[in-house]
């Protein structure tokens, strides 16, 4: 690959330090954007003497996740996730709107969304929300999951040296998660034994099916519903014209007194545009990595013209940033970094952008819960807008350009300052 990521110190340690500093300042993605803007969509980088590649080119992402899928693996991620026992799901079933009804003044929606999605997913998978886990009254499960996710993200950036950073608090957090999920799985499988192979209850159907498929009571699942709820609300209160148009569309289809149905949600095209634009700017997995299990190639980035194939040797890592790909001006126009849902009404963008829009990953590993996530996000934002017609941004809060706000990056991305709004 012709384009090289610049470094000055031996082993490119200055690159690691600059990224660490940017992450500490909560501006890592904005820091990386400068290099993509300057160097282009593909680059080679050397870290600790090992060669790796980074791309935001749709053709290359398609190759990594689909056409060259058999030659790419998650072996690094699987290794450190399984060794530390990070498995289970995120987030709990509760009515987020009911929880918010008792709130006055400035409210931070982010923790409500985290609890709601944690409850929803654990209820779907295990038949009971995480809030009902015995001995978890203090929220140990949720707190441990958040901390472990943060450390996992940092270890991922260390590549083959991930093992060098294993804080004792991280080990303890992993054990807490594992113990809680073990208890839930054992409860479900205990019910299964009484039924001689028949499903005891519909609420347990998912984990029963999973057990039949894997024959192993270990579940690896990441739920990212909060990644839709939180930035969507964050963006809407900062764009009142978008919020007003969405509110008008919702009012024309359903009322707060009606039972919300899938058929009604399908009749809200602007809501779909808002969801697409939110997921474009804040995709489910902002950055990910693959390791070549055999010598292969990606179709773009090599040669003097930087448009020729690039040889990827066995054992070489290649990262791809959906976050930065979704902000490319040559794909989305000069306003690619702005929140503008109307772009999805123009030029049949949803059907022409192809691998340039990847909100839920792609290829054989596409997110299985994407439809569930979109429906849950739609229901939540509809009910919040209906229940709180005066939803707005509190006066005096800063309005940074999209992408320049302080961000918290773990495996997913969220606002480092929460999502503060006025409900009344």
Extract low-pLDDT stretches. Answer: 75-94, 215-223
Oligomer: single chain
Residue-averaged pLDDT:
82
First CA to last CA: what distance? 55 Å
Q: What share of residues are in beta strands?
A: 5-15%
Give the helix proportion (percent range). 40-55%
Total number of strands: 11
The strands making up the biggest β-sheet line up spatially as 1-2-8-5-3
* Structural class by SSE content: alpha+beta
Mind describing the biggest β-sheet?
5 strands, mixed
General shape: globular
Helix and strand element order: HHEEHEHHEHHHHHHHHEEEEHHHHEEE
Whole-number radius of gyration? 22 Å
Count the DSSP helices: 17
Describe this structure as you would to a colleague.
The protein is α+β, with helices and mostly antiparallel strands. The protein is 46% helix and 12% strand. It is built from 17 helices and eleven strands. It has helices at residues 13-24, 28-39, 58-67, 75-84, 96-100, 109-126, 140-157, 168-194, 205-214, 226-236, 240-253, 262-266, 269-281, 322-325, 329-332, 349-352, 370-387; strands at 42-47, 50-55, 72-73, 106-108, 287-292, 296-302, 308-312, 317-321, 407-409, 413-415, 420-422. The chain has a five-stranded mixed β-sheet with strand order 1-2-8-5-3, sandwiched between helices. A two-stranded antiparallel ribbon has the order 4-11. Mean pLDDT is 82; it is low at 75-94 and 215-223.
What is this structure's SSE topology?
Layout: H1 13-24, H2 28-39, E1 42-47, E2 50-55, H3 58-67, E3 72-73, H4 75-84, H5 96-100, E4 106-108, H6 109-126, H7 140-157, H8 168-194, H9 205-214, H10 226-236, H11 240-253, H12 262-266, H13 269-281, E5 287-292, E6 296-302, E7 308-312, E8 317-321, H14 322-325, H15 329-332, H16 349-352, H17 370-387, E9 407-409, E10 413-415, E11 420-422
Parallel strand pairs: 2-8
Antiparallel strand pairs: 1-2, 3-5, 4-11, 5-8, 6-7, 9-10
Helix pairs in contact: 1-2, 6-10, 7-8, 10-13, 10-17
């Amino acid at each position: 690959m012709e384009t090289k990521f610049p470094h000055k110190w031996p082993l490119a340690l200055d690159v690691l330090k600059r990224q660490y500093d940017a992450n500490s300042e909560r501006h890592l993605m904005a820091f990386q954007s400068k290099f993509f803007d300057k160097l282009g969509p593909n680059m080679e980088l050397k870290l600790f003497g090992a060669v790796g590649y980074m791309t935001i080119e749709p053709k290359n992402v398609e190759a990594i996740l689909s056409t060259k899928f058999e030659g790419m693996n998650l072996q690094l991620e699987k290794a450190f996730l399984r060794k530390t026992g990070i498995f289970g799901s995120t987030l709990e079933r509760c009515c987020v709107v009911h929880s918010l009804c008792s709130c006055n003044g400035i409210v931070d929606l982010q923790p409500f969304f985290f609890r709601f999605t944690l409850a929803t997913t654990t209820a779907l998978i295990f038949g009971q929300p995480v809030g009902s886990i015995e001995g978890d009254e203090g929220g140990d499960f949720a707190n441990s999951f958040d901390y472990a996710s943060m450390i996992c993200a940092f270890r991922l950036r260390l590549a083959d040296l991930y093992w060098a950073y294993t804080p004792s608090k991280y080990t303890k957090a992993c054990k807490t998660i594992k113990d809680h999920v073990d208890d839930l799985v054992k409860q479900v499988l205990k019910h299964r034994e009484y039924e001689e192979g028949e499903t005891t209850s519909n609420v347990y159907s998912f984990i029963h099916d999973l057990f039949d498929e894997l024959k192993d009571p270990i579940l690896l699942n990441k739920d990212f519903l909060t990644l839709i709820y939180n930035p969507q609300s964050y963006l809407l209160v900062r764009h009142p014209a978008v919020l007003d148009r969405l509110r008008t569309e919702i009012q024309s289809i359903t009322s707060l007194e009606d039972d919300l149905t899938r058929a009604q949600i399908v009749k809200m095209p602007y809501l779909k545009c808002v969801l697409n634009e939110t997921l474009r700017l804040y995709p489910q997995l902002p950055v990910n990595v693959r390791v070549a299990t055999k010598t292969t190639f990606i179709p773009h980035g090599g040669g003097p013209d930087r448009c020729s194939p690039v040889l990827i040797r066995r054992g070489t890592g290649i990262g791809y940033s959906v976050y930065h790909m979704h902000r490319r001006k040559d794909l989305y126009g000069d306003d690619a970094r702005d929140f503008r849902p109307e772009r999805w009404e123009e030029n049949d963008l949803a059907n022409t952008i192809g691998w340039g829009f990847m909100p839920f990953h792609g290829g054989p590993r596409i997110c299985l819960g994407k439809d569930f996530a979109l429906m849950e996000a739609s229901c939540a934002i509809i009910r919040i807008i209906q229940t709180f017609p005066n939803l707005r941004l509190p006066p005096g809060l800063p309005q940074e350009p999209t992408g320049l706000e302080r961000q918290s990056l773990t495996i997913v991305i969220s606002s480092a300052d929460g999502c503060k709004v006025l409900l009344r």
